[in-house]
Amino acid sequence: MSLNASLITFSGHQHLRLRLVLSILSGKAVKIDKIRSEDKNPGLRDYEISLLRLLEKLTNGTVIEISVTGTAILLKPGIIFGGPITHECPLSRSIGYFLEPVIMLAPFAKKPVQLTIRGITTDDNDLSVDLFRTVTLPHLQLFGISDGLELRIKKRGASPEGGGEVQFLSPIVKQVKTLNFVEPGKIKRVRGIAHAVRVNPQFSNRMIEAARSILNRYIPDIYLYSDVYKGSESGKSPGYALSILAESTTGAMHCAEATSRPGVAPEDIALQATRALLAELEKGGCVDRKHQCLVLLFMVLGSEDVGRCRMGEPTTRTIQFLRDARAFFGTSFKIVQADPENSNCTQLLYSCYGTGYINANRTIA
Amino acid sequence: MDQDQKRKPHRVTKNKNKGKEKQKGFNEKAFAPRSGRRAERQGRRKVELDQTRLHVPLVNRTPEDEPPPVIVAIVGPPGVGKTTLLKSLVRRYTKQTLTDAKGPITVVTGKKRRLTFIECNNDINSMIDVGKIADLVLLMIDASFGYEMETFEFLNILNAHGFPKVIGVLTHLDLIKKASLVRATKKALKKRFWTEIYQGAKLFYLSGVLNGRYPDTEILNLSRFISVMKFRPLIFRNSHPYLLADRVEDLTPREEIRQSQGKCDRTVTLYGYLRGTNLRLGTKIHIPGVGDLDMKSVEILGDPCPLPDVDSEKRRRLSEKQKLLIHAPMSDVGGVMYDKDAVWINVPGSFTRGNIDVPQGEGEQMVMDLQEAPATLEDAVSKSQIRLFGTSSKGLTLGRSQSAPSDEDESGFEDELGSEASADTEDDSEIGSEEDEEDDNDNDLVPSSEALQNTGRTSRRIPTRVLPSASSKFQEAITYAESDSDLGDSEDGAHDPNQRMFVDEEDPDVDIPSDDEDLMDEDEGDAPRWKAHLAAKTQASLTTRRSTRKNWIKLIYNTNLTPEQILNGDSPDPAKTDDGKGIIDGDEDFFTFKRASDSKAEEELDITKEPLSNEELSKWEDEEMLESIRHLFITGEDAPEAGNERQDGDSDGNEEGLQDGVREEDHVEDSVAEDTPEARAAALAAKKEALKRKFDEQYDDPDADPKSDFYTQKKEEISRQLSLNRAEFESIVDKAARALVEGHRPGQYVRIEVADVPCEFINHFDARYPVIVGGLLPVEERMGYVQVRIKRHRWFVKTLKTNDPLIFSLGWRRFQTIPIYSLDDHSIRMRMLKYTPEHMHCYATFYGPAAIPNSGFCTFNSLKSETPAFRISGTGVVLDIDRSVKIVKKLKLTGVPLKIFKNTAFIKDMFSSALEIAKFEGANIRTVSGIRGQIKKALSKPDGAFRATFEDKVLMSDLIFLRAWYSVTPRKFCNPVTSLLLSDKDNWTGMRLTGEVRRAEGLKTPTNVNSIYKKIERAPRRFNPLVVPKKLQAVLPYASKPKLMAPQTKQTYLQKRAVVMEPEEKKAIALLQQMKALRKDQVARRKEKKSEKQEERAKKMEREERRKGEKGKEKKKEVMRVIGQKNKREADADEGRGRIKRKKS
Fold it and tell me: Among B523, B571, B710, B1041, which is most exposed with the fewest C-beta within 10 angstroms?
């Protein structure tokens, strides 16, 4: 009886997070080599090491082997354990980088995850904690993960010094629900959070004004909150950002955000965020581009039924994810035009047959 | 039923009026409640009863349109009549008599139902495996004997793994002569059966055997019961794909086998109907009794035993010819039997060619056909042509005609040539593979050398498709298959082994072209459909602006393009199409990144948000642009129409290799666009539908739905999802492509190719032992520590001991492992138990393959058939899987005082070094008398001694102990039960207990001198007298002062006084003494007399006893004589019917 789970091999440092997540969920060992082997500074970066450490904390029995040069890793996944975890992020990446894989794994843990994570809360590369709270978590509710799902922003921390802290609480589920989300609906409301730390609180109001100047033409139901953190809760560096999201009648959400840059007026930041939202809305679909992978992953993990979702064209990340998902779970998607009559429509209908993934880590009695 | 059994005659009821009363109908008033409260109670009762009838709605993943055959297992002890029942049932359904019924036998029994019969032998491994897959169990019980141990074992196995439907079948009722005894036996057996299964479980009675079969009427009744049986899905089977292999073949090249002397790992194909959930390539499978294996390929084959199709559906009754369908490759249907690597043809005594008037069996016919073949396969292949397109008139000219690689049929989505071309390539690839196989078969059954060439494995598979002179049965089979392929598409034929055989066996140079013509015909039938639109489409694509339609599935899954290239719209390089394999076993690298992308990737971070580019966003400064998305908001109006001229996205037909839903729908659309009467009718219908919906919306109250309770809602939800599941991938025509997306659906007949199967599986193959292929979930592939809740079975005679090996049957698997039993100790710790508790659940933790929590299991101490007692040792359920365990056992460390101060003492002999003590600083210690204390610090001298403080002064004689917990982990031992690999499959031996090994080897248990019990010599303890210091005594109150007085030395007054009595007193005392003496004498005499009497009585009793004993002996003798006669009669009867009970198998 050969019970060695087959090994899956990848090359390159890209798409590391999703591959690790897929490996842990599927239980198949993964080997990633040629990690920046041609670079002047070869091997894993500090944030990637930090991510591996976080995954080790989250799981039990995981074996991670890193080669001497740091250009290859081998991950033999254990079980997802959960429980109270604390993690310090390096300042090279924001909390969003670490939170994204955790959100994908947390519902399948043995114990409810209570993750306290410290670092930069908002930056340009990853989703800010505001978007996690207002957009990503509602996406999990589509799959029946809702009770006890919470993200608390204790402190904000802008780059480069960080100093923010968030607490992520996730329940555990037995199985995720099958998604059937093909009706994008129409945008019925727009919400947003303008936050400012260690700068003039008036900045957030200025951002709101500017964003409203564009959005007011569409619908009246716009609430942009001004969220100012003061004192010890405001982190170590000054900064401000605007995150906005649009929700449709069927619950589809699209979001965009822009963060402060030196020498740019808050109004310009707000306009940028707003225009990014409009661009996102134009792409359409039921799920925005930042959450494609998350939604597709949970569709793969759904019960052994056909799940369907309408989305825009896949991003590069999504395309690689689809390939990786097939390597790990053997699931391929059927991707067709969502609206065959309308040639202008770039939206696609993704459908797949769920693998019937059951949270085997869950203890009964 | 025998004639000598008398039944009670029917008694006519005395009350003649009863019937008349009933005729008047239901008297409502008679049942009206007398009071409101009573009415309320009645109503409540009714509702409660309704609720009990409801159960949790479960999804049934077995497809309704073409379900796999129902597995009917016939189980029972040897000699009970299993084979007879199997043959009778097969005879009932197919009108055929099997002489050697082995392996699964599939028959068509109705329009929507097929049955697979399987006979389960008496081996417990087979019983476990059959219990896991059977949908219906015919549990056979010998009524003349009663229940046997195996029956109860089987029922308990079923209990642990999900209970299928069970019908009891009582046989050998004819052996009981007395009618009243028959009745009593039936009643007793039924009572027990009902308690074991449920009250009212169906129990069938089969009387004697006629012509080697049970009476037809009784079998008919039984078959009716089977046909109306309804099944509730079982959770385990509803979450795992599985297959009962009805045919096993060895595909290993002969040369390899020869070189390794039959010891090399084999490549084996397993055939069967898929059941449970969808089977995906890439997941692992487990064959119980063999082990975990990887599937090399899964191929859909034509159904060998198909359900009646459309045209026969129209007929009211099942015609006779469909009843004849039977698929039993391991049995000898029509004189042909398929073995693991050969086919056996039974030929009656005289066998000559040209003897057409004698009805010939299937096998004989095959041999005759082979003899008639004019050319060898090689000739046929050399003459045949390969054409790339079905329409092309000239064949390809190649150096070698069989050059097509055989692995082509594995390739995921078909290439651009379309399904016709792919069918062609598959065709010739199969020819190639046959060529490969051809040389490796050294068939010594068929004598002629010509036949030797032609009896390749592929050609052997097919009993149908013979010359017109074949018996009527086969003709029917031919028509059947043809109609099937007519209904299906061209792919069907290519996959169908029947057709393949047809191509190369009979008349190659005639048939292959004709086959191609078939394809051509289909092409021409097909061609107008897409060709007609081709011109229009090209036109459209030229006029309309460039369509951005991409075939995303193909781009993502079938090309090697980087994601960036896909998004930029680079065309795929046909040379570099990936074969869709991501899983790599060795160190090979499939994902080779291009240099260009690599260098670019250096700056690229793994980011979620795409960077905002000002150029792209600047377009939103434009007012018009802003207005253009107004329709996306609720305040905006509907989306602008795309225009009436349809910009057809299908212009790039070449790119669309996969005929997916888009195309299909487009075709439909096209036809609708044409102004045909159909289209108008459709439009009208759509209009009506819309009007109706509008009306419903206005006048129907959505809340008024009467049956919208939770249960119905759930049911509806499930059925909606199931219909979506069916519909979603229906549009993918290509079977292989469809299987890639959704896996192989249950109900399909598939061929699973498995590599690296141990050679013993083939060498010791026995068709009487079921071969099951169970799909594994990702979790189940991994090993880990599994915690279960277990209870020793109350019928198992021994207790279970920690660290004794135990055989588990869990999920598909059977394995031996070493559990550690434990109990939860006040929710603080898991405390190890040495033995399982009586009548109570406990936990067990073992190392083994993980299973989904909540799945049931049963355990065995031995699987051997000669075990006399009940073999199931425990049952339970999986609770948890983990990678580490926390089980502790108690450890007491003892020490003795070295020196005692007031409340402080130095303790020695507990530890051996200061390092150990450092670990235990602050730990609680205790004396036997209960004085508590704490470890403080190690002493420098002697080694291992430490200072401790106590709540009181300890004594030098006190024993000090420290209670600690020592964690134990189960041994990492897991031994799969590989019973199918043995030649003697009933006697698998795993790891034995030490005692068993010693007994087998004749060794004595070594004795440890320290463990021998000896008399303990304890010196008597001397306690020093308690001395209270004088000073203290002085201050003590009087009551507390020790009252110590020296013993008196002088005689007391009472001792030393003299007594002088008065004469009266003297007299009185003398009288008293005399009376006492008299009394004493009287008692003594009485006692003597009594004992005498007792003795006499004892003697009498003894005499009596002796007499009784003699009488009993005579009686016993009489009984034994009667029994002897009876036994003799029975033995005679057995010999007469040729039934040898308990000697079989």
Answer: B710
